[in-house]
Design a protein that fits this description.
There is one protein chain. The protein is mainly α. 74% of the residues lie in helices and 0% in strands. It contains 10 helices and no strands. The longest helix is centred in the first third of the chain and has 26 residues. The radius of gyration is 18 Å and the shape is elongated. The protein starts with a helix and ends with a helix.
């Protein structure tokens, strides 16, 4: 395997291990054992188990972001963009469910350590501005609120406390509420037409 392929294999193994419990089940030794490699090999790719989990979270977040952006970009002019966004988020959460459930559980340090520069908030700000025409300053101010609504919905849904359609509609309602009260930028119509 190439170095990149091996790195992805180790991340895939860590994701499978997360299905057995929380982040404590992912150790470098267990990853090596399940990957069929020497105990030292994972250390050639990651500093420790936390570094591996941070990288896994980033990979899952990139896949999630790409799915959401594509869904919004392909939406029709009459589509409810808030619902498109929420549906894309939770659809991707199906494939990344175990990973997200373990890595974003309350009290987990992984999301904050994986995103020290606030890329997730910036991504949400860009969505609010680009697809909903929300003024950039307001989009920045509410990005964490929107992101929190989506994460909170993930927690309740992935723990089987709420049905997926309810979580999707609730997240879409949060987006609609933010957009309805937000100042709009002058370029909103132009942005929508150029999508």
């Amino acid at each position: 395997m190439s170095k990149g392929q091996r790195r992805h294999q180790l991340l895939d193994v860590a994701a499978l291990l997360l299905a057995d419990g929380d982040t404590h089940v992912v150790t470098m030794e267990r990853v090596a054992e399940h990957a069929g490699v020497s105990k030292a090999l994972p250390y050639a790719h990651f500093d420790n188990a936390e570094d591996l989990l941070i990288t896994l979270y980033r990979r899952a977040s990139v896949e999630l972001g790409e799915s959401i952006w594509q869904a919004l970009d392909e939406a029709g002019p009459t589509d409810d963009l808030a619902l498109v966004w929420a549906d894309a988020y939770y659809h991707c959460s199906v494939t990344q469910g175990v990973v997200f459930a373990a890595l974003i559980r309350p009290g987990s340090p992984i999301p904050a350590k994986a995103d020290r520069r606030g890329h997730a908030d910036e991504f949400v700000r860009r969505i609010l501005h680009r697809f909903f025409g929300v003024d950039q300053a307001h989009a920045q101010a509410v990005a964490s609120v929107v992101q929190g609504a989506f994460h909170g919905g993930s927690h309740t849904w992935l723990r089987d406390e709420t049905a997926r359609p309810v979580v999707i509609e609730t997240a879409a309602d949060v987006v609609r509420s933010v957009v309805a009260t937000a100042p709009k930028c002058d370029r909103h119509e132009h942005d929508r037409e150029t999508r």
